[in-house]
Specification:
This protein is of the alpha/beta class and about 140 residues long. The protein has 2 helices and 10 strands, in the order αββββββββαββ. It is globular and about 60 Å long.
Length: about 140
């Protein structure tokens, strides 16, 4: 009986740890490898690169392709690498933001890929359905 209680406690602890670390949530799967860039181009709700590596302090610009007439909202959650929670961009008005890590971003170990990754969503103006995008990943170093 003690063994059963021990295994139950261990299983419950493991499940809570997975949920706390994001293991219980389905995350966006990047279509391409992360690319170090200073520009993200949006075309028909598709960001390229879909995951971008940037240095802390680097400026990142969201640009909408000239063939795309839409305006997009780029929205971050509570953890974000830019001061505003959301910004907009259109083909006539790109949006450049200085990227800065928040207090949870720590380089090294398992946290490097998690706490320094800032997921965001793209939403076309006039639509209520966001197009998910994996986001901005801050990497050590300077540019």
């Amino acid at each position: 009986m003690k063994i059963f209680k021990l295994y139950s406690l261990l299983l419950a602890s493991l499940l809570m740890l997975m949920i706390a670390c994001g293991g219980g949530a389905t995350r966006y799967r990047a279509k391409h490898p992360k690319i170090h860039a200073d520009n993200v181009t949006i075309t028909d709700c598709d960001a390229n690169p879909d995951t971008v590596d940037v240095y802390d302090g680097q400026t990142l610009t969201w640009t909408v392709a000239p063939t795309d007439p839409n305006t997009y909202t780029i929205a971050f959650g509570d953890s974000r690498p830019i001061p505003p929670k959301s910004i907009t961009a259109s083909n006539s008005s790109p949006n450049a933001q200085r990227i800065q890590k928040d207090s949870l971003c720590r380089y090294g170990g398992w946290a490097y890929g998690g706490y320094c990754q800032y997921d965001y969503t793209l939403t076309k103006k006039g639509s209520s359905t966001p197009c998910p995008d994996p986001g901005v990943h801050i990497i050590p170093g300077g540019g």
